[in-house]
Amino acid sequence: MYYLSILILTLFFFSGLHGQDWKPYDNQSKKQKNLEKYDYIYLLDSTGVNVTENGSGSFAIRQVIKIQTPAGALKNRIIRYDYDPLTAYAEFKSVKIYKPDGRVIELDPAKSYDYAAPARAIYWGARQIMIEPGRLDCGDIIDYEISKKGFTYALLAANDDEERFIPPMRGQFYDIVPFWSNQPAIHKVYRVSIPQEKEMQYEFYQGKCTSSARIEGDRKIFTFVSDNILPFPKEPNMLDLYDVAPKLMMSTTADWKAKSRWFYKVNEDYGSFEATPEAQAKVNTLIKNCRSEMEKIAVLTHWVADNMRYSGISMGKGEGYTLHNTQMNFTDRCGVCKDKAALLISMLRMAGFEAYPAMTMAGSRVESIPADHFNHSVAVVKLSNGTYIPLDPTWVPFLRELWSSAEQQQNYLPGLPEGSDLLITPVSDPENHYFKLNITSNLDSKGTLTGEFTVEAEGQSDGSIRRIFTGRFMSEWKNYLEKELLNVSPRASLLSVDYGKDPKNYTAAPIKIKMKFSIPNYAITGKDILIFKPMALNNLYNSVRSYLRINTQLEERKYGFKDACSRQILLNEKINLPEGYRMIQNKKEDHFTSPAADFSGYLKQENNSILLNNNLKLKKRVYEAEDWDGFRTAVNTHKSYGKELILEKIK
User: Fold this and answer.
1) Most buried residue, 20, 95, 120, 616, by CB count within 10 Å?
2) Measuring CA to CA, which residue among 536, 476, 484 is closest to residue 504?
3) Domain extent at residue 419
4) Handedness of CA 45, 208, 246, 415 (dihedral sign)
């Protein structure tokens, strides 16, 4: 009866969105010729939320879709909606198809299906409701309504069925509403009704909408409307859509400090970090020979990162914001980010440190409105000087860092007893992720190139190169290294490898590998002429150079962009030439600096050798649109050193 009453209230409140009120928008779409090219359009995209005192929401979702092409009919032949049964309930309330000839086909919502949603690595029981409209034709209009109750993130499963719909931070409501679309939307509306005594803060980012706030009885009503939404234009390597496209964020939580204190308390109350004798014994063994606090932190972080497998299954209590306890994590050695973070926190505490959980968002920005925009869990530890540093055992397996620099410029919120504001990880200097390639070779008059090169790397670059040693059998190592040479030429042969120190022991030193090679017919030969590319810029270890996958032919950018990590590329190549040959190109030298990237380099012939030197510094992971000119100039100048060299024999 409780659920029924809430549903009736919701439907009554949002009755203005029902019936055939989309018809005016259909007429409006007919006037817009530029919409005819799209496979389908949303005539109406509406969501209404009725929030109760405990923070649970009853959602009335309605979409009206007009089919315009056979491809659009195919894409909408099945209607799907995802939900998590631990925290929400969803069902189709009505599905109608309006045919161009005036017929109306009503589908029975009872004939919808409820299936397990596709999953990989995390198996928490997410489900999909779906219904099949059947064959659709151009001009058909699908009008469907979904009723949903609950919230979107998991917490603790409870015996009382109604308890599962109450959000983790009881009494608080938040929502993050994208106001962009992959197809045109003629009319989009979001309404929320909350008890009058609740305070709601909200902000509309990266765009404009029509908004209103009013009081009706004991309720506050907030309405946000946007018309004629076109698909958001995308650029290669663009920031996440949440960082550039229009969105609405709202929350009844006062500030991030309140969320931080709650996150601390919910895990302390649950006992997520209680010590166990077995885990304590392991901690004692690991830190036995450590001589500083950073040594202890490093050995514990790397042990958890390397020894706990990433895989999540639903284990009842301890999902979502609440971290599984030490007994489970240390015994199972299996879990997702929050479980790896929880075990590290427990072990740090057993080693005498103050350590706490933290939430972060891998992939996009977190705004000042405390509407939870988190998808990842990490840890923070307090040093003896009183400062906190973040640690991420999920992203640093077999990596020389304690916090992955693939997460630099990323917001995070520690769960501290005194509360914390939203923080951001700093930029990591490019020198922390250097990639050095030193090549010495001999080119003969028949075009055969022989020589040796040394690869050195640190940080994220080290991790990229070392992956074949930490993730492959030793018998496969040489084959994978030879593949790098085969990227340069299918005729290449790897003659020998000097692995230096044990490449699996990543904590000992930055990686350094020396290889000897031979490449027959590397240069194109003609009468008294040789043509070839410098090997350092000819597809050798491109896997480390993520910036090469960014299209720098674009002259302008409207939005910010991302690379994998800040990085320094140092190339030195010496090519000894056959007697009597000279490079017909003039000496080349460049120097360039900007806030985004620096470059310096030269290409010249000295006596009987060609010398190439490149020093490229990419200074960020996340760039603003105004950084594009500096980034693009530096990278394109660097690439220009990879053009074919022409040698002619002096007569």
Assistant:
1) 616
2) 476
3) 258-426
4) negative
